Amino acid sequence: MKKIFTSVFILVFLLMNSQNIVFPDPVFKAVLVGAGPNVTTAKDLNGNFFKIDSNNDGEISLIEASLVGYLNIELGGVSSVEGIRNFTNVSSLNIYSNDITTVDLHQMPMLKYYTHVGNVLQTVNLQGNTGLLELKIEDSFNLDTVDLSTCTALEKVRFYNTTLTSLNVSNHSALKEIDCAMNDLLASAQVLGCNNLEYVQISGSVLTTIDLTGLHSLTWVDLHNNYFTTLNFEDQNQLDYLNIWGNTDLTSLYIKNGAIETMNFSVTPNLQYICCDSSQISTIQNTIVSNPSSGYNSSCIVNSTCNDVLSVAENQSVTNNVKIYPNPVVDVFDISTENKIQSVEIFDTAGRLVFSISNPSKSINIHHLKSGQYLVVIKSDNKKTSKKIIKK
């Protein structure tokens, strides 16, 4: 029996060694055949640069390909890497500055690290790559989407300077880092279920919404230069750093989460409401007041109530039709609107309701209030408008 087993093993070995891989691109084949200990193309399974074509026949056999653990294809004028799936034990693959439009790496479960830098890349097939840990794609100006649904082991994803339009890594529970910058067409990012996600950078894109519900492990978030109108970080109680500068459409921000994060929210001229932890109120207010040239909205309301009456999204539809005068106010202010006023509520800077009246006239007497700054919330036509006033 032992002799039979040995004979079968030798037969399989000889068969594999005699089966040469067909590479449609002769340049790719030449790169592989030219690999050697002094060339940074290939490493063996022990991590040493080596010669793949061990028998010097100018071909790459299946057995020779199976001994490769690392491939680095760069600056070679390669237009196709067809045949690469025969390198079944490659765990790390780098492709730089070639003419490759399509890469098919499906069903390569040993592949753990894949980096691709190249401006003509159009399609990447990673289906069934259940062992992939890190994916980096850069400077790819024809790549619209990458299906990562079966790459369930992913820990790090990076897309830099691409034409990617959407990113979906939902329920990738192993994912710890998303690093996406300068993707001018990226309009959708789905990250729900990434419960171990710690680091997120999605900047220089055209995102208008992102749902971070349940992502309690986030410590570092950079969403600068997007088109968000509302951002909510109330689930991020481990947050250390938040960068949202340049979101010029942003109107409301919710960061009441128990974390005292370092925050950059400059160049947000339409930001009208920030709900934060009470210990942050004075710091945020001072930042706004002390930096008038940094693109802050000097009328931004900052408190810790997170009360829906302060929702700017509800207010914007009627804001331009409602005016308060005079402002500053001595005792009485008037409300100018074409609609019937249903109610008026006034909040102090701590978010406390200090005055409320239903079906009032358009003249409101606040002589009893102390001097200071207040937020007036006017409900008319079932819509709410908030206006900031100063009581002398």
Structure in words:
By secondary structure, this protein is mainly beta. Helix content is 12%, strand content 31%. It is built from 5 helices and 26 strands. The strands form 6 sheets. It has an 11-stranded mixed sheet with strand order 1-2-3-5-7-8-10-12-13-15-17, covered by helices on one side. A 4-stranded parallel sheet has the order 14-16-18-19, with helices on one face. A 4-stranded antiparallel sheet has the order 23-22-25-26. It is elongated. Keywords: Leucine-rich repeat, Repeat, Signal. InterPro entries: CDIRP, LRR_dom_sf, Secre_tail. This is T9SS type A sorting domain-containing protein.
Features:
392 residues, mainly beta, eleven-stranded mixed beta sheet, four-stranded parallel beta sheet, LRR_dom_sf, T9SS type A sorting domain-containing protein
Question: Nutshell version of this structure?
Answer:
This protein is mainly beta and 392 residues long. It is built from 5 helices and 26 strands. It comes from Chryseobacterium kimseyorum.
